[in-house]
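Section: Multi-chain targets

For targets with more than one molecule, the full set of components is provided together so that the structure can be written out for the assembly as a whole rather than chain by chain. Components appear in the order listed by the source. The example entry contains two components.
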Amino acid sequence: MTTTFSLEAEVASLIVEALHLEITADEIDPEAPLFGEGLGLDSIDALEIALAVSRRYGFQLRSDDERNHRIFASLRTLTAHIEKHRTG
Amino acid sequence: MTSLPLTARAPEEVIFHRGAVSVTTARFLAEVADLAARLPAEGPVLNFCADRYLALVAFAAALSRGQVTLLSADRSAPRLADIARGHGARYALSDTDAALPVPVLRPDATPGDAAPNPLIPAAAVAAIGFTSGSTGEPQAHAKPWGALVAGARGAAERFGVTAGTSVLGTVPAQHMYGFETTLMMPLHGGGAAHAGTVFYPSDIAEALAALPPPRLLVTTPLQIRALLGSGVAMPALAGVISATAPLAPEMAAEAEAAWGAPMREIYGATEAGSIASRRTLDGEAWSPYPGMRFEIDADGARVTVPGLPAPVPLSDRLVWVADGRFRLDGRLADMVKLAGKRASLAGLTRILTGIEGVQDGVFVAPDDLDGNPRARLAAAVVAPGMSASAVVAALRSKVEPAFLPRPVVMLPALPRDAVGKISRGAILALAGKR
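Its structure, encoded as tokens over all components, is:
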């Protein structure tokens, strides 16, 4: 089995681990909404993801970021945001 | 009939920080009068403002017109529709673009001419808060103006909130805990609240740093955990108040060491409001607020709250300790609390088994529900031909996100013990394997 390393896969694993989700990382549709319909995450999860992101990638998510809804729109948008702001 | 003014604060005192603007009592009263004059003739009004100051102006304007404010901590569309229908809401005051089940008026804070401080009858119902009952339907809890004022005065006294204390809340204005500490307290207790919405650790730290000291943080164990875990730098704090779930002593100790401020907790419920407090590191005993009368017997615990017409049953078991203080001894088995909201397991189970295609099912609470801020409910479901995700999708329109089960265990039949009772232990064991 070959594994293609990508940040998107890494973020997917981070979400699954941080939230104890029942699915595996590769079952997350990168284009599907993370909250509400789709993966069905809620505000407790948002705080948990923010914490995991700050620990792994060394920067803080913020709610006054105008693009906050877009950042959490999908795994892909969250990954893009992390790619841009990571310090670790 | 006794009346109490809208606010007890002096005209020049600052009661809110709204961005760079410090709002004085005089300015607040002028803005309330301006909005009140533009309100529709009749309430009740659904208050949906995210900006805490606009939420306060909206509440006060409605109150001054004799209109009842509906406060729903649950912002989901189905619940808001239930509440609007059940209570005949005529309109909503909202500063967001969210679709609401009634016509929306957008409040804005317009400084008008100097306005008087309206007198409000103490017995008038000012607001109605909601909880989920055992049927899953919203249950209404009316708040007379006198009870809200008494609670605000008690809280300010208990926590030593002075006129100049800055109060940053992370709990929504429409949650009874947030409403009491960040809307009512500036009106009648003291302090100046922060208007903006904060959620992530860095939001909280930055908003606090922008407020003049002394600073009081009003938050929850979940956010304290995130603040400590993220390691953001916090400005000097005078104190932290936590509520919605018990704060673990270990976390309180870590926070006191990191922030150099006492960690105190409020015990309360939507029905009763805030009724007791403690400093977490002083031990497990709670000191009742002044004027509260607790009755504890074999049937459970009830509290008589000044200003409320009848004793309020509590969903926790209480045990007296010394000096008129009590400790919590678990909750009534059916009631669970997550993300500051309460639900009945029986009510959730009824919703689950009402889903088309579900033959049987049950919600269960894990053993660490009360101590682990991240704990979730589990569900066991018998629904041949349905997937776990289809069950969750069906629940999503009827149940608040925090109560959606994780995991959902699909079974051919529910595990039952020798006497035919559903085995909670067996279900939790299956859930734990996932």
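Chain B has eleven helices and 27 strands.
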